[in-house]
């Protein structure tokens, strides 16, 4: 009987604890979606600290927390979270591509052009392809002095988003004709 009582007490303690990690993850995701980046970091950190998330869930929370940290301009910890997620082996190529693209953007903000370009290239190789990706890689290439490659990326971006004025302006600034 004593064993059963201890088991029941343990279950009552463990079951709510199991929900805490997921609950914090949901609160963090909602805060991120609303643009409350401080709350997102707090809740996503609590989810990770709970020790209850595993595999892909852990990696997804790391990516989300890194996105919040990026918006708060806390770049080194964002890079750390993204690197752990990328190297975890727990996520599919789509999530790896998102993590690489996000880390590339962080490196770009830090002025680390070589790492940013490497991550943009890797994300694109995994199929994370959109106008924003090419535009941001173009900006990075341009900052790195790779004007010809930057123009190629801006042109690709413009093909994908022909009404995007920022892309058109960038090409015009570089002296390129825009249809």
Summarize it.
By secondary structure, this protein is mainly α.
Question: How would you summarize the topology of this molecule?
Answer:
Elements (H helix, E strand, L loop, with lengths): L1 H33 L2 H13 L5 H17 L3 H13 L5 H18 L2 H13 L5 H13 L3 H14 L4 H9 L6
Model description:
The chain has helices at residues 2-34, 37-49, 55-71, 75-87, 93-110, 113-125, 131-143, 147-160, 165-173. With 179 residues, it is mostly helical. It has one domain (2-128): Serine Threonine Protein Phosphatase 5, Tetratricopeptide repeat. It is elongated, with a radius of gyration of 21 Å.
DSSP helix count? Answer: 9
The tally of structural domains comes to 1
Strand content: under 5%
Indicate the percent of residues in helices.
Answer: over 70%
Spell out the key features of this protein:
179 residues; mainly alpha; Serine Threonine Protein Phosphatase 5, Tetratricopeptide repeat; 9 helices; 80% helix
């Amino acid at each position: 009987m004593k064993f059963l009582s201890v088991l029941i007490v343990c279950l009552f303690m463990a079951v709510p604890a199991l929900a805490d990690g997921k609950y914090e993850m949901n609160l963090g995701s909602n805060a991120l979606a609303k643009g409350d980046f401080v709350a997102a970091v707090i809740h996503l950190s609590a989810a990770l600290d709970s020790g209850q998330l595993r595999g892909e869930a852990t990696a997804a929370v790391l990516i989300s927390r890194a996105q919040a940290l990026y918006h708060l301009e806390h770049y080194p910890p964002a890079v750390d979270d993204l690197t752990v997620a990328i190297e975890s082996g727990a996520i599919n190529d789509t999530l790896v591509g998102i993590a690489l693209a996000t880390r590339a953007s962080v490196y770009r903000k830090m002025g680390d052009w070589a790492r940013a370009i490497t991550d943009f290239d890797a994300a694109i190789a995994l199929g994370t392809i959109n106008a924003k990706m090419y535009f941001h890689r173009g900006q990075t290439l341009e900052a790195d002095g790779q004007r010809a490659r930057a123009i190629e990326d801006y042109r690709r971006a413009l093909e994908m988003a022909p009404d995007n004025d920022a892309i058109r302006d960038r090409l015009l600034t570089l002296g390129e004709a825009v249809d």
